[in-house]
Amino acid sequence: MKITAVETLVCHARMRNWIFVKVLTDQPGLYGWGEATLEWHTRGVVGAIEDLAELIVGEDPRRIEHLWQMMFRQHFWHGHGIIRSTAISGIDIALWDIAGKLAGVPCSQLWGGRVRDWVRTYCHLGGGRMEDFYETSLDDAKAFGDLAAAAVADGFTAFKSMAVPPTMPIEGLRPLRLAEAAVAAMRDAVGDEIDIMVDCHARPSPAMGLKFGKVLDPYGLYFFEEPCWPEAVDGLAMINAAISTPVATGERVTSLAAFRDIFANRGCEVCQLDITHCGGLTAARRIAALADAHQIALAPHNPQGPVSTAASLEFGFTQAGYLICETVHADVPWRSEVVREGFTVEPAGRIVRPNTKPGLGIEIDEAEVARHPFEQETLQRVFYRDGAVGDW
Ligand SMILES: [Mg+2]
Question: What is the pTM of this model?
Answer without folding.
Answer: 0.97
